[in-house]
């Protein structure tokens, strides 16, 4: 920062009262001069640097304390004063690493700026007097640069630490997400372990009365309006377009309120999501695909898919058809989890068309 250490400003206004160091008018002008000099020093910096400093400026206010009158000339009415500029910093602003903290103290403490806990103090000197002809109050301030420099360095260090913490958190999340598929796959495979990939033939069930069969069919049909009560992993401002439980897991496909993003989430029952895709916000058209599968039953099953490494995840079906979650690895089916109980699907509905998803032409490896 610039080495300029003195500045003066004039506050318009007439009066006959001899100014003192602690006058409200004098103190106000001292703080105005400091703010003007602070703005002047920082406006020449890059926009990025200004943004980093302003991140802490908005959380602080500068005051004038420990005001002392060093001398006063009764003939000219000039008061010579000393005081301390002070500001209270946020807790996280004073958590610099030991090496950085020692570096800043070594530079600024010998110049009269001291950090005590969260309070930064800096010694300054100023004079106050009225002009003989107009009675306008004049104040000249000096010695504020160590305080200003210390504040600047603390603010820069605070912002840098925040960026490093954000980068570390993002890296940790990405590491967890990259590990999630293998963990989820192990549990999915355990869920389907022992089940043949193709349905095994079974003995014909005993004949039931037609009335009983009709009752079972009616019980299996979803009740209109009941889908709103289906538990999902979507937030309050998202719209669920697919949701169901597979017995051990709960899966949801959620549409953002903007209507341009989708998010797939998988979680154990009554637990936080263990898998979220995509990890960062992305338009649905770049992260997902859609298609329609016609199986042996001749039913058209709409589906939405995404690829994560060599895994392909697919949610398929409507509430009125079979519905489930398919997982493939390198083109081979490793899990096909059927939805149980309460379920919801609006795949293939008009609201999905607004996402303009690309077509997934690969067939589904369904039994």
UniProtKB/TrEMBL annotation:
Low complexity bias spans: 178-197
Region spans: Disordered: 178-210
Bias type Pro residues, positions: 198-208
Protein name listed in UniProt: Uncharacterized protein
Top-rank lineage group of the source organism: Bacteria
């Amino acid at each position: 920062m610039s080495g300029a250490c003195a500045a003066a400003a004039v506050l318009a206004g007439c009066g006959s009262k001899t100014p003192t160091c602690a006058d409200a008018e004098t103190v106000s002008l001292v703080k105005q001069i400091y703010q003007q000099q602070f703005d002047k020093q920082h406006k020449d910096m890059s926009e990025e640097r200004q943004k980093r400093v302003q991140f802490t400026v908005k959380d602080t206010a500068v005051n004038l304390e420990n005001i002392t009158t060093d001398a006063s000339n009764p003939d000219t009415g000039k008061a010579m004063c000393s005081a301390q500029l002070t500001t209270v910093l946020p807790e996280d602003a004073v958590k610099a690493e030991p090496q950085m903290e020692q570096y800043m103290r070594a530079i600024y403490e010998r110049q009269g700026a001291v950090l005590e806990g969260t309070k930064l103090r800096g010694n300054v000197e100023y004079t106050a007097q009225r002009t003989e002809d107009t009675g306008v109050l004049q104040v000249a301030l000096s010695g504020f640069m160590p305080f200003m420099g210390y504040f600047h360095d603390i603010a820069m260090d605070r912002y840098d630490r925040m960026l490093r913490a954000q980068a570390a958190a993002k890296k940790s999340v990405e590491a967890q997400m990259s590990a999630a598929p293998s963990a989820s796959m192990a549990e999915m495979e355990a869920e389907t372990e022992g089940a043949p990939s193709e349905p095994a033939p079974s003995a014909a069930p005993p004949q039931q009365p037609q009335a009983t069969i009709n009752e079972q069919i009616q019980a299996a049909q979803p009740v209109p309006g009941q889908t709103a009560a289906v538990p999902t992993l979507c937030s309050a401002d998202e719209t669920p377009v697919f949701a169901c439980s597979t017995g051990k897991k709960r899966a949801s496909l959620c549409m953002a309120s903007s209507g341009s993003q989708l998010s797939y989430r998988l979680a154990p029952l009554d637990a936080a999501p263990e898998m979220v895709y995509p990890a960062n916000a992305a338009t649905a058209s770049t992260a997902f695909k859609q298609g329609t599968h016609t199986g042996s039953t001749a039913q058209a099953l709409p589906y939405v898919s995404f690829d994560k490494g060599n895994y392909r995840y697919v949610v398929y079906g409507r509430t009125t058809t079979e519905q489930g979650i398919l997982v493939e690895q390198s083109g081979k089916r490793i899990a096909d989890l059927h939805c149980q109980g309460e379920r919801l699907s609006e795949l293939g509905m008009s609201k999905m068309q607004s996402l303009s998803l690309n077509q997934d032409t690969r067939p589904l490896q369904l039994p």
